[in-house]
Write a structure and sequence with these properties.
By secondary structure, the chain is mainly alpha-helical. The protein has 14 helices and five strands. Helices cover about 55% and strands about 5% of the residues. α7 crosses α8. The protein binds adenosine-5'-tetraphosphate.
């Protein structure tokens, strides 16, 4: 696609934190939407490595470097096309960190303390300042690119709202520098729940410590089957459309998202059938999807120089836009 053609389309920007192994929730809520909609937008997708440092006890330098390579390979394997999407690593575009500092200075602490993600993670001993200011870095990640839409899962709704508030506050204090982006959140499948506990969101960090919590995009078929067959449902035995517990609801949502079907379709298929039937069907659908991703992943994962090149070229293209926005913010605040 020529850059002129891309430039006439609305712009999207999104990313995934390099905190652990990508799971089926990341795929359904984010990656599959990014890949599917690539032709409609001018696309910027990054790997958030700076955000991966917010919990210092978890920083493992070699593992972080490996994870970044794994994630960029998964981006491509999930269908992101480097001719249609700019893929880059957050830390390689220094404007992210510099605009985040400016945003830290204009964002009231109370706004950050109210974030549910901060509240849920700050009960550890000595939470880092980065954990608190994470959302102003995320605001910088987004606003640097002046995107029209930010395609994310439902858990990011509050962060996008804060990003909009930060943009409005900056604009009213210093002049119109940032356009106000809209979240783009799918109607079903935007919050896949844990397979071991359907009351918590499936997340990379929980998957690190809890076997059976998530299906990883790189899990082998037997592990996927085991995770899904053991997933938590409820005391019922068969699918009943009029009284779905959270666990069965989650399995249906997964099945519908991956087969592109509706609730009506899935009730026609599973109503009155045992939970085991639904789980078996879901396991096969997940394995089919994930195997296709893994096949492509395995072709490119070992080609380090190809993956490094994608990130180097991506950083250059991303910086072209980000630097201009950051310079404008610096001029408006008197830093330039
Ligand atoms: N369970 C999910 N269902 C649908 N979408 C999801 N996303 C994350 N979890 C789900 C979306 O994936 C993108 C990347 O999000 P992330 O890097 O924050 O992923 P995570 O799995 O939530 O990772 P962490 O590091 O373990 O975060 P915490 O501990 O905060 O949950 C986003 O678009 C996200 O919405």
């Amino acid at each position: 696609m020529s850059s002129e053609a891309a430039a006439t389309r609305p712009r999207v920007l999104s990313g995934i934190t390099a905190t652990g192994k990508l799971h089926i929730g990341n795929y359904i809520g984010a990656l599959s939407v990014w890949a599917r909609e690539q032709d409609r937008f001018e696309n910027y997708f990054f790997i958030a490595d700076l955000h991966a440092l917010t919990i210092p006890e978890n920083i493992q330098p070699d593992a972080l470097r490996e994870r970044v390579t794994e994630i960029v390979a998964l981006y491509v394997a999930c269908g992101l096309d480097v001719d249609k999407s700019v893929l880059f690593l957050q830390s390689r575009v220094p404007a992210h960190a510099s605009l985040a500092w400016i945003f830290n200075c204009v964002t009231p602490i109370g706004w950050l303390e109210r974030m549910t993600q901060y509240k849920s993670k700050s009960d550890r001993a000595n939470p880092s300042a980065g954990l608190l200011t994470y959302p102003s870095l995320m605001a910088a990640d987004i606003l640097l690119y002046q995107p029209d839409f930010v395609p994310v899962g439902d858990d990011q709704r509050q962060h996008i709202e804060l990003t909009r508030n930060i943009a409005q506050r900056f604009n009213s204090m210093f002049g119109e520098a940032f356009s106000i982006p809209e979240p783009m959140i799918r109607t079903s499948g935007a919050r896949i729940m844990g397979l071991d506990d359907p009351n918590v969101k499936m997340s990379k960090s929980l998957a690190e410590s809890r076997d059976g919590h998530a299906v990883g995009l790189l899990d082998p078929p037997n592990k996927i089957r085991k995770t899904i067959m053991r997933s938590v449902t409820d005391s019922g035995t068969e699918v009943r459309g009029d009284g779905l517990g959270a666990g069965v609801e989650n399995l249906l949502v997964l099945h519908e998202a991956l087969t592109d079907t509706t609730r009506e379709d899935s009730l026609a298929e599973f109503e009155g059938k045992g939970y085991g039937v639904l789980k078996k069907a879901l396991a096969e659908v997940v394995i089919e999807h994930v195997s296709a991703i893994q096949e492509r992943y395995n072709e490119i994962r070992a080609d380090r120089s190809y993956l490094d090149r994608i990130l180097a070229e991506g950083a250059e293209k991303a910086a072209n836009i980000a630097d201009e926005t950051a310079r404008n913010a610096m001029r408006l605040t008197g830093l330039l």
